[in-house]
């Protein structure tokens, strides 16, 4: 493909319910949708899966948009791109800013797949036709409230329940859920809320037969996580600490985790996600696809990625209705008994609903030079 124009649609969407983690509460989201237009007129779509504040990682929707406009888009515009796998290396001249990079990289994957009339999942070598889905639940006001939520989502058919934890909202909450649901696939995500000083506290989680504990220690750490993993029976899963194939290789070598959460945005795109998937597969380490409260566009990328064979653990790929009163894609992502069908249409397999898009758009910019 050769990009002749990129349109940046900045949108604002209200979440159907506030989402609370150890680092804060999200009520609404600004997202920069990247529409990459090829010389033949095909549009590929990507999104910045950033949060509005730099609390999960260093990026925000604003900084990602700035990186895209001033550095990343000019680098790929009007260049002949033989295959989207080339895009990752074209963008390494900018340090970090993985989510910004991924927004344009994923748009190019979609454009390339559409141009070649192939589904994104097939293009990357995905083999599954349907995927199992988990639900990520934010921190609730009490253990009783959390148990109510879990019951609702178990009834809806979710194949994994992930509970956000933080100091002061951990053991009581997990204990209450386990008492009510002794057998469900259950895990906890701490979003970096603990340190090695909490090791005895964290060990108490071992009694609950959790599938894993996600990112218990610092967002930039793989050393202390190795120490922790040695002393915990519960598998450690890394999210925030893994930004690249190299990070994944080092974490596996050190024994910092036994599972990796792959987020396309966090690792700079689909190409790097596939490479991390393959590395983990070769090492017998299972992976799953994390979520960033995406719109349908990011969600579609996540579903396609999850069709790869080593995504053996249900991901945070809940359907559109769990985030938005109205998603911007047609049809919306739906789930049946915890299963989502992998799209078979060209590219991401969903159409962007231009009318709905315009209703939530707060800024639109065309870049063609
Ligand atoms: O740590 O996985 C996380 C949302 C925003 C930032 C970080 C995380 C999350 C989630 C939500 O857990 C997952 C979802 O999209 O449902
Ligand atoms: Mg996480």
From TrEMBL:
InterPro entries: Enolase-like_C_sf, Enolase-like_N, Enolase_C-like, Mandelate_racemase_C, Mandelate_racemase_N_dom, MenC, OSBS/NAAAR. Pathway: Quinol/quinone metabolism; menaquinone biosynthesis; Quinol/quinone metabolism; 1,4-dihydroxy-2-naphthoate biosynthesis; 1,4-dihydroxy-2-naphthoate from chorismate: step 4/7. The active site is at residues 164, 263. The keyword Magnesium applies. Its cofactor is a divalent metal cation. Mg(2+) binds at residues 189, 214, 239. Its EC number is 4.2.1.113. One of its GO terms (molecular function) is O-succinylbenzoate synthase activity. Transmembrane segments: none annotated. Converts 2-succinyl-6-hydroxy-2,4-cyclohexadiene-1-carboxylate (SHCHC) to 2-succinylbenzoate (OSB). Belongs to the mandelate racemase/muconate lactonizing enzyme family. MenC type 2 subfamily. PANTHER family: O-SUCCINYLBENZOATE SYNTHASE, O-SUCCINYLBENZOATE SYNTHASE-RELATED. This is o-succinylbenzoate synthase. The gene is menC.
């Amino acid at each position: 493909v050769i990009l002749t124009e990129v349109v940046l649609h900045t949108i604002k969407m209200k979440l159907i319910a506030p989402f609370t983690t150890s680092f804060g509460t999200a009520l609404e989201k600004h997202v920069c949708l990247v529409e990459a237009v090829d010389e033949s007129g095909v549009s590929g779509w990507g999104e910045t899966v950033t949060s509005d504040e730099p609390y999960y990682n260093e990026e925000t929707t604003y900084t990602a948009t700035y990186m895209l406009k001033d550095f990343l888009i000019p680098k790929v515009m009007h260049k002949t791109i033989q295959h989207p796998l080339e895009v990752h290396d074209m963008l390494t001249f900018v340090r970090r800013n993985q989510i910004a990079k991924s927004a344009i990289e994923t748009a190019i994957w979609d454009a390339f797949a559409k141009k070649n009339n192939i589904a994104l999942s097939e293009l990357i070598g995905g083999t599954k036709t349907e995927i199992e889905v988990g639900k990520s639940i934010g921190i609730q006001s009490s253990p009783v409230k959390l148990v109510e939520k879990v019951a609702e989502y178990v009834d809806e058919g979710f194949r994994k329940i992930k509970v956000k934890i933080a100091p002061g909202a951990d053991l009581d909450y997990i204990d209450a859920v386990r008492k009510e649901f002794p057998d469900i696939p259950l895990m906890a995500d701490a979003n970096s809320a603990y340190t090695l000083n909490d090791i005895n506290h964290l060990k108490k989680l071992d009694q609950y037969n959790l599938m894993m504990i996600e990112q218990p220690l610092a967002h930039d750490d793989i050393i202390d996580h190795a120490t922790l993993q040695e002393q915990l029976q519960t598998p450690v899963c890394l999210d925030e600490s893994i930004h690249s194939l190299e990070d994944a290789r080092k974490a596996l070598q050190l024994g910092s985790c036994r599972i990796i959460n792959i987020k396309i945005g966090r690792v700079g795109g689909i190409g790097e996600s596939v490479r991390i998937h393959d590395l983990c597969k070769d090492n017998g380490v299972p992976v799953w696809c994390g979520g960033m409260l995406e719109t349908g566009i990011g969600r579609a990328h996540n579903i396609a990625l999850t069709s790869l064979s080593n995504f053996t653990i249900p991901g945070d790929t809940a359907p559109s209705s769990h985030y938005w009163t109205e998603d911007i894609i047609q049809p919306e992502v739906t789930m049946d008994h915890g299963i989502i069908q992998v799209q078979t249409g060209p590219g991401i397999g969903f159409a962007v609903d231009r009318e709905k898009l315009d209703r939530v758009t707060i800024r639109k910019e065309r870049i063609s030079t």
